[in-house]
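user: At home tonight, take the chain set out below, taking as long as you need, and be ready to discuss the fold:
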Amino acid sequence: MDHLEKIKDVSARYQVATSTLRYYEKMGLLSSSRCKSSGYRLYDEDALVRLRQILVLRKLDISIGDIKKIFGASHADIVLAVLDKKVDDIDGEVALLHELKALVLAFIQQIRAIDFYNETDVKRLFDKAVAETTLVGDGGNLAQLFDTSDQLDGSITAIAVEPIASNGRCNMESFEIIKHEAYKFIGKSVYFRAGTPCGDAWFHDFLFEHSDWMWAKLDEMNAYASDITTKAALLTWDKYCEKTELLGFTYGKFMKADAPVPAGMDYFDIAEGYMGVGVFDNWDEGDHEYMVNEAIEKTGEYTPASWRFMGELLYGEGKYGYFVSCERK
């Protein structure tokens, strides 16, 4: 019999979440068998070869849809077409970055021409630079700067969806698709048995109200802070479902992938990818997730990931965020 590896061993060996492996299977990219005694997914050598191919293509930022085309192709033309398109995409992004760099360098030269010794207030210095340099003088360079920046934002980091959604009780004031690096989500978790009623989600409120020590410790870890600076609540069903059938929430923060985990805290490794983020003016249990999922689908380029992580961004001051991981089609 061929050597078979359990899903947890494959996950550890290739640094891929078990949820991602299951997602690849659902999308028809990967196959496995089942252990009769434990029910674990098992992968043979052919499956591992295929997984390595998938991982290489994903590192090249090839979409799941294009990977399916590659694996379904009977000749090299499809593979070459997909890779040629990726090269064209990269060339376009590189050209925009060079254009933006040239504009920034021009702005630097204009600022340097100002008498710094007579302008000690940074904001007034910047306002003077904007008002007196050629970036605004003819309007052309400034328009070019905005246009170039917007193109980069659209191709690399975010896609806005209009109209912003409303259900009559809460409004989604903004939405974007964010391309993110790998994170480590660190915090404290509480769980409940899958399938049992949550009631008023007492675990949700209890954890948030009794976690001051955790927030203080994470706030001290400035060297490992990520670009997502708000507190957050991560729905943690996926990591625990396979072994314990427990669902729950982990309150904490997104930190850099190499952040150490303080004693007494839980963590989740979040692979690089995309997330849809909606900002709401009011809390409305249940509809936040639905409205973000719907907004992701409206982009036409992304879909909520079946292996998704999701949860709340805790802005305070009457603002509520909700995020859902997603995949490019």
